[in-house]
Design goal:
Layout lengths: L2 H19 L5 H4 L7 E5 L15 H26 L9 E7 L10 E7 L5 H4 L3 E2 L4 H12 L6 E6 L10 E5 L14 E2 L6
Parallel strand pairs: 4-7
Antiparallel strand pairs: 1-3, 2-3, 2-6, 4-5, 5-6
Length: 195
């Protein structure tokens, strides 16, 4: 598929996906809810929602899901930096989480938008993430390099022990429009230290 035709095709279908199937991901809706602890909202709920990707290889599917998930993360971050509660912003974390590595290895990865307003809680103070050290995070880093955006994002793993069924890779922006919005690297501990 020609580059412009491909871009138009993906833009159209991902915009449709966000509007039709993921109303909670509209910026005005995403932040209206005061989540009790944290929330993780998937970019799609059913495979039928992303059937427009069926014509692509597995790696291409992952590449495009990552690209458009991060594009929407940028949208959410920009919206929050401009419209968010300035008293809460220092305790807020926004990122993309990527799951379903071991449960359905032949299927799509699950891309989710994560938010918490409680970065001052003991769990977050314990630095629950680690520098990339798994084949899953290495794979995401390679996709970021193919997209030429690896320098713009932080990639993390869980600190051990890792539950394979719950395993996630975490991706966040290195810089935010408002420097008070906390970045993912604040929660990276030593991967040799169990939590």
């Amino acid at each position: 598929m020609h580059d412009k035709k491909l871009k138009d095709y993906l833009d159209k279908n991902f915009n449709k996906l966000i509007k039709r199937y993921a109303d909670e991901l509209q910026p005005a809706n995403f932040f209206i809810e005061k989540w009790e602890d944290c929330e993780e909202i998937p970019i799609y709920n059913r495979y039928a929602h992303i059937s427009f990707l069926n014509k692509f290889s597995q790696e291409e599917k992952d590449l495009y899901l990552l690209k458009y998930s991060l594009r929407h993360l940028d949208t959410l971050v920009s919206y929050y930096c401009e419209n968010g509660n300035k008293k809460e912003i220092k305790n807020t974390l926004l990122m993309v989480t990527i799951s379903c590595w071991e449960i359905y290895p032949e299927e799509y990865l699950r891309f989710n938008f994560f938010i918490t307003y409680k970065c001052n809680d003991p769990y977050w103070i314990s630095k629950p993430f680690a520098q990339p050290h798994t084949k899953q995070s290495s794979y995401i880093i390679e996709l970021l390099k193919k997209l030429n955006i690896a320098d713009d994002y932080i990639v993390c793993d869980d600190r051990p022990p890792i539950n394979k069924e719950l395993q996630r890779v975490y991706v966040g922006l290195k810089k935010h429009p408002d420097p008070n919005l906390i970045t993912l690297d604040h929660f990276v501990g030593d991967s040799r230290t169990k939590i």
